[in-house]
Amino acid sequence: MLAIRGVTLAYDDTVVVHDLDLDAADGEVLCLLGPSGCGKSTLLRAIAGLEPLQAGTIHLDDRDLAGLRPDQREVGLMFQEHALFPHRSVAENVGFGPRVHGLAPDAVGERVREALELVGLAGTEHRGVDQLSGGERQRVALARAIAPRPRLLMLDEPLGSLDRALQTRLLAELPEVLAELGTTVVYVTHDQDEALALADRVAVMRAGRIEQQATPDRLWRTPRTSFVAGFLGLDQQLPVRVDTAAVHTPLGSLARRAVSAAEGTVREGATRAVLLPEAIRLLDDDEALPADHLAVTGTVLRRRFRGDHLQVTVRVTGSTDHDTPLDLRALSLRDAAPPDAVVRLAIDPAGVHLLAPDPRP
Q: Helices H, strands E: what count in the chain?
């Protein structure tokens, strides 16, 4: 439904998006994930017609958007700052788009009611925006973006200005709202939790280019590069050497057939591997090591409460090449050894993934 081909964008002489190709299917929620300054918000503005293209094309439903004004593109854009009219009512804010498109007053009122009901604010039409909480203003901004019924809805860091409690609550509600809306959504964020929770597909951006795009589960299990893995919070990475039979790590060797690999990974030679959090677990004293797993001995340095799990940090013993502690997840105190305890760990090769070399940004 959305087709971006060879798009280059620049500010003065600084190129911020480089020859980028990207697609979004009808009804898909596509998240652009990346650090500040990687070009993701600039790309949204170009789709909306707010930034000129230096090269490339953008098509929506096979229609070239070149030369079309923003109001002719059937695109809705919600900014992080909300940009609401502060001295207008909720209804006046939400109805702004439909009015600009020339709808009759009765039709505008119906659009306002539908959009507010969708975001859980039915009955607030006559309240002033300045009387709303931060979370309610966020919902009004979303309702205003929805009300014109755009073919493409773009959300630029929509939860970024909220406190953590509001972010968590709205993040739980947004998937249902977007699913009921049924339109194509491009969602920009630097928060991997948002991207993984909301998206049908995630495109990770770096320095104006897409480094990897995949479904959330595939992105998590098989990040392509060290940058992608690190941006997802997968910081446990090891230097490894690969031969035809084994993957040799500082912790020991694993069968090559049992380890996954990113496309473009060297089949033999030096590279890096990421350990997924679920790859490492504590073994009971009398528990046998599962087949193909790697056994590691270490001493517990600390354990920390992380909400839904305990993070147990273990310093590995018997390895001269790896002195970085390993972190593993335990679901309860009963599953987590205390500090100073000597423990055995099992590393599951299914949670070890070989990375391709990082391309130069």
A: 9, 21
361 found inside a domain? no
**Res 231: pLDDT:** 94
Give the DSSP per-residue string, 8-68.
EEEETTEEEEEEEEEEE-TT-EEEEE--TTSSHHHHHHHHHTSS--SEEEEEETTEE-TT-
Single out the residue of 311, 298, 313 nearest to residue 344, CA to CA.
298
CB atoms within 10 A of CB 107: 14
Assigned token pair, 340 = 């100073």
Give the per-residue pLDDT at 79: 79
The reported pLDDT for the residue numbered 71 is 84
Q: Which of 192, 223, 254 is the last residue of a domain?
A: 223
| Strands of the 152-156 sheet, one edge to the other | 75-78, 152-156, 184-189, 29-33, 201-206, 209-214
For 203, the domain range is 2-223
Amino acid at 319: S
In a domain, 360, yes or no: no
pTM for the full model?
0.88
DSSP-assigned letters across all residues of 143-181: HHHHTT--SEEEEESTTTTS-HHHHHHHHHHHHHHHHHH
Question: What token pair was written down for 14?
Answer: 């600084």
Distance CA 48, CA 30 (A): 16
Q: What is the pLDDT of residue 321?
A: 62
Distances in whole angstroms, Cα of residue 293 to Cα of each of 28, 254, 256, 261, 282: 38, 7, 12, 17, 12
What's the one-letter identity of residue 212?
Q
- Residue 83: per-residue pLDDT: 78
> How many domains does the chain fold into?
2
Low-confidence stretches of the chain (pLDDT < 70) are: 161, 318-322, 360-361
Q: DSSP label at 100?
A: H
Q: What is the pLDDT of residues 236-245, one digit of tens each?
A: 999 999 998 9
The contacts of residue 182 (CB under 8 Å, 6+ apart) are 27
